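New to this. Help decode both lines:
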Amino acid sequence: MPVLQPIVNIAELLVQQGITDVVVSPGSRSAPLTLAVARHPRLRVRVMADERSAGFVALGMAQQSRRAVAVICTSGSAVYNLAPAVVEAYFQQVPLLLLTADRPHEWLYQQDGQTIDQPRLFGAHVKRSYDLPADYTHADARWFIERSINEAILFSQQTPAGPVHVNVPLREPFYPAADEAFRYEPVRTIDWLRTEATLPAEIWHRLLTEWERSERTLIVVGQHPPDPALLTVLQQISDELGVPVVGEITSNLPRNDLFITQTDTLLAGLTPDVAEALRPNLLITLGNSVLTRNLKTFLRQYPARQHWHLTENPDRLTDAFQSLTTLIPVSPRLFLEKLFADLDYQRFLQGDDDDDSEGFAFRQHWQRADRQARRLVQQTVFGPDVPFTDWSATARVLEALPANSVLHLANSMPVRYANLCGVDARQQISVYANRGVSGIDGCLSTAVGAALQTDRLVTLLTGDVAFFYDRNALWSAPVPPNLRVVLLNNDSGHIFRMIDGPSRQPELETYFETPHGYTAQRTAADASLSYRACDNVDELASLLPDFFLPGDQAKLVEIKTDKLANQHQFATYKASF
């Protein structure tokens, strides 16, 4: 198929630009793209029949590898099925390269099958869209394709990373003749050199002056991938400069004696006096979205006089707490490392090792509140006569996680329960959750993608509605053997029983919770997953050690709980504030 040689060359260009993984959903119009990647010896290709799952599997793979993963699908409604994963990748800043086959545009609105208006289909939720020509005979068309693919791959990975869409109109014939050999021609690659932004000296000194004037500085970390170097400098700033550092389980700030991680509890039911005592003069934020409502509400109701937000190459202002005064467009890690080095050197010159300053007292105030909140959570899930609930089961699962493993948290209540419990710093757990737009639609698929991309054990903690909604993640065998699924099955959309609004409505069960009566036993059998079920704490404790052992088969444990017991436990916890 000589006329489609530029499409064959796309596979080679992916390889030359560092892409190693492609997720393909079967289709006829996309055959030239599929064959090009499937026959390339240096590409790993995963087939996912459901395009929605395919997008999320690619998302999970890209989260782990920190580089773009390509997704190929056929034309028509198949492309729209990528949309949930695309918007999640956009707001979570994860690089994806979407290669969508299309019909030549002259056939649009001509009652031809699988033909929709695909260029710019994803709108503002991709970093950029490209529409390739349907005819490749002219040299300029081949040059345009090569240049566009170079740009799309590079642009997807430029900070802030995100999805990029390349629409590929294709004419018949799609399939090579039996005697037609594939060849991958040399391609031209274009480098996009990375630079690090630095601040001019006068601006840097102005920021240092503002820092020194603040006796009560607070650092808040939103959702952030694991970053040991960032973690180190945050520990140094908190420990040696007396600054409280606040984060959540999705910030990858572990539970230790230094960081503040129990904000959902310690900021609940604050009196005005306590809130003022916790209020910073200077707030420094980094990372993406904040999970807990109480933290967001506190920072909005008690704004700092100065609020710096650190983000590299911002494409818009992010003012989540309605208090932003300064956007600092640099790498948060590099900024904080230089800040600590300069302040530490200044303290050395001045002989200032005073840990009794107001700044250290401010940190201690936050830490005392955090310890009290942690004790309350411990009593709620481990105290005498505590019933077997989703929350108490979550606490025991998190404590049993193998060291240096990966934890994926499904949305709705699982991510909230896990955040209330936290993970211990000694476990060195890497935590991920689809908190870009916080949907339940691809949580299982994302975890499958992560397990495909790493040799580490990957555990998904998920609720029943999220699990059954995304069962097609297990459709395309084999499921990676390093995947562990912990399914909290209370036979309902449990979160609606916890929210004040729907929980008071007589239509709660029918229109919000939607009980289903399903178990995962047959789903696990269909996907060849090892399956265990339990409904009490002793059974759970006995099966977890074997569940987390390595093996040649993915495993699922279904934890069955009573939704009324879950509701009562959570209501008792909230009443204790």
The CA atoms of residues 390 and 488 lie 6 Å apart. The radius of gyration is 26 Å. The first strand starts at residue 21 and ends at 24. The mean pLDDT is 93.
